[in-house]
Amino acid sequence: MNDAVKSRIVPATKSVTCCANPDFAARLLDWFASHGRHDLPWQQAPDPYRIWISEIMLQQTQVSSVIAYFDRFMARFPSVSDLAAAPRDEVLALWAGLGYYARARNLHDAAHIVVARFDGVVPTDPVVLRGLPGIGPSTAAAIAALATGQRHAILDGNVKRVLARYHMVAGWPGRTAVERRLWELAWQHTPQREVAAYTQAIMDLGATVCTRSRPDCSRCPVADGCASRAAGRVSEFPRPRPRKAIPHRATCMLLVHNHMGEVLLQRRPPAGIWGGLWSLPELDSPDEVAAWCRRYLGVKPAQVEPRAPLEHTFTHFRLHITPLAVALDGEAVNVGEDGQVWLPPGQIEGYGVAAPVRRILDALASSARAV
């Protein structure tokens, strides 16, 4: 469930009884002091801006994948004003390969709002934060809790897993009723003090001990009170998303060369898959190449050569890509306007391209160097 959907689910409020089991938070905090993660880059000088960037990057992405991206992003955009002032292309280029590109577009849009409405100061009121693009209730709570220590419960994927197992909460957490119950439990366990440490602790527990496929109950500080462990049913919680057949789609990506060996890239529409990124022209079938070249480039293809196919998996479908190297029979016309650019395949730094497009271009550059 994405943040846009989550924002329509109102989490439990602070009026929920605090710490139904105070020992849960105490044990977790003791464990975190010795075994938690304390050296993550966003934990150093944890101001709201740095926490915000990290929380957005960590949505559906593991810490190990995020660290290098976070460091590069913060080096280039050390403040929200720097982010707001940057061209969209540069933001997407630094995000390229991290996936879920709507996150980067939302970050950039939200930075403009923070500069315009809040004088460049990232708000820490969760209600206000939820009004910014891409920030749902759990992300807003995490920013407030981690940056300022305010008492707000979070409910990311790791926390859902920990609470669903500890309390044997039946059902898929994506269902509204199940998520409401988990919000209630999240509030009940959140202590009045040391909220920032507790918030990081419960996320760390889910990420490093109470993992999805191989939970290590022997290392869990709250294992004694875990209902699913007592019942011998840890692997049954939380219930997975109901299975659906993943549809398959196919596309042809054109590697159109000019006489200098450069490849044509086109900017994708601002929304949708790879929104705002630079990509290769796409067609449904190789049979359409000649007509496309005549219509958009004013010249016919001299040669069309298939390259090694590849596959890319999205959340909701699997994309089969057939690259087609296209040599033109003459100079292309009508190229060079906004949204089109000729680039050497090995010189795409500064242009945001999706991971499979980069793989195609890298392979092309490698083959050119080998000649």
Description:
- This protein has 371 residues and is α+β, with helices and mostly antiparallel strands.
- The protein has two domains: 234 residues, Endonuclease III, domain 1 (Orthogonal Bundle), CATH 1.10.340.30; 123 residues, Alpha-Beta Complex (Nucleoside Triphosphate Pyrophosphohydrolase), CATH 3.90.79.
- Helices cover 42% and strands 12% of the residues.
- It has 15 helices and eight strands.
- The strands form two sheets. Strands 1, 4, 5, 6 and 7 form a five-stranded mixed sheet that branches. The protein has a three-stranded antiparallel sheet with strand order 3-2-8, with no helix packed on it.
- Strand 6 and strand 7 form a beta hairpin.
- Helix 10 crosses helix 11.
- It is elongated and about 75 Å long.
- The two termini are 48 Å apart.
- The relative contact order is 0.12.
Concise structural overview:
With about 375 residues, this protein is α+β, with helices and mostly antiparallel strands. The protein contains 15 helices and eight strands.
